[in-house]
Design a protein that fits this description.
By secondary structure, the protein is of the alpha/beta class. It folds into 2 domains: 176 residues, Alpha-Beta Complex (DHBP synthase); 99 residues, Threonylcarbamoyl-AMP synthase, C-terminal domain (Rossmann fold, 3-Layer(aba) Sandwich), CATH 3.40.50. It has 11 helices and 16 strands. Bound molecules: adenosine monophosphate and magnesium ion. Adenosine monophosphate (AMP) binds next to strand 6 and strand 10.
């Protein structure tokens, strides 16, 4: 029997012609890697269960982790029967934050295949702001299910090169839209509960959400490790995502304590995932992920830096424990998982 040959993965610039090619591929049930303002997505027709199943196969994603459905116009929610009802708080959130990095979970509509919602009776919807994402959805003439375009367990991709690294040979096309503006996955909130619950922090902060809809609660899994057997309100939160090859440990301390702690453990096998301000005081290999004072920059650089660390042979990474305010809550949420919840408190 002939051995199966991996398909060639082509990198496409976002020209009108290539966007049409992506749209046609998606219409036929194919997969395309696409840029968004959060991270790169691996897209398929959200209304085609078989096409969606192929996303899980390509990523090695557990089938019980539901996907986000992307639209390019608010009216598509009703047009394609994506939800059973649009709760009033969904209108308020959409009005304030769409198009943008906010995913809103609502009661699931008839058109959503089980592969998308992982059998839940809710569905996650997002209207991305990236013009290329919008153009691809419009060209495909259907909503697109699109999780992050990485292999399950590796950091989400923030450039086309990251997608190529993970999915080369598994998908026909990746559209190169440059580096992602936010760099972390969308904020996820459910309005299928009252008050609404923040399930995943991202570029839109809890403060901004409260300003729009009043009281919200924050799922326990956002900042804490769930106990064995405890059910995650969002299935994705139970997985140890973004696990680097090296053992990553968060150090909760002030500046001086962090520098002293790391330098006392100086070795060729040790690295520091640190703030820009720390670099020239450290005696080990440094991987700065942004200024101590710039949470948006930290979010933007984190995943690229984690991938850079994965290319080294370092075995231990001591990481600054981020703040949990504003956008930093999202950075903390990703790093605490990368660290398998291992934190050393010096302060
Ligand atoms: P990703 O597609 O990789 O950005 O991950 C999507 C995230 O949204 C995962 O953490 C999912 O568990 C979560 N999610 C998607 N749909 C739902 C839903 N209906 N209820 C709760 N969480 C959801
Ligand atoms: Mg993901």
């Amino acid at each position: 029997m002939k051995a199966s040959v991996a398909m060639e993965t082509r990198l496409l610039l976002p020209t009108n012609e290539n966007i049409k090619l992506a749209g046609d591929t998606l219409k036929k049930g194919g997969l395309v890697g696409i840029p968004t303002e959060t991270v790169y997505g691996l897209a398929a027709n959200a209304l085609d269960g078989n096409a969606v199943k192929a996303i899980f196969d390509a990523k090695g994603r557990p089938m019980d982790n539901p996907l986000i459905v992307h639209i390019s116009d608010f009216s598509q929610i009703e047009k394609f029967n994506l939800v059973r009802e649009i709760p009033s708080k969904a209108y308020i959130l959409a009005e304030r934050f769409w198009a943008g990095p906010l995913t809103i979970i609502m009661p699931k509509g008839k058109a959503i295949p089980d592969e998308v919602s992982a059998g839940l009776d809710t569905v996650a919807i997002r209207f991305p702001s990236h013009p290329v994402t919008q153009a691809v959805i419009t060209a495909a003439e259907c909503p697109l299910a699109a999780p992050s375009a990485n292999l399950s367990g590796s950091p989400s991709p923030t450039s086309a090169a990251h997608v190529m690294n993970d999915l080369n040979g598994k998908i026909p096309y990746i559209i190169d839209g440059g580096c992602c503006e936010v760099g972390l996955e969308s904020t996820v909130i459910t309005v299928a509960a009252e008050p609404p619950v923040l399930l995943r922090p991202g570029g839109i902060t809890p403060e901004q959400l409260r300003d729009a809809v009043g009281d919200i609660s924050i799922s326990q899994a956002v900042l804490n490790k769930l106990n064995d057997g405890q059910k995650a309100e969002s299935p994705g939160m139970k997985y140890k995502h973004y696990a680097p090859k090296a053992n990553l440990i968060l150090i909760k301390s002030n500046d001086k304590q962090y520098i002293n702690y790391v330098n006392a453990r100086k070795s060729d096998a040790v690295g520091a995932l640190c703030y820009d301000e720390d670099t020239d005081k450290l005696l080990v290999k440094t991987f700065p992920f942004g200024s101590k004072f710039d949470y948006v920059q930290q979010a933007n650089r984190l995943f690229d830096v984690l991938r850079t660390i994965d290319k080294t042979n370092l075995t231990t990474i001591y990481c600054r424990c981020p703040d949990t305010r504003g956008t930093a809550m999202a950075v903390y949420n990703r790093l605490i998982r990368a660290a398998g919840f291992e934190v050393i408190e010096l302060a």
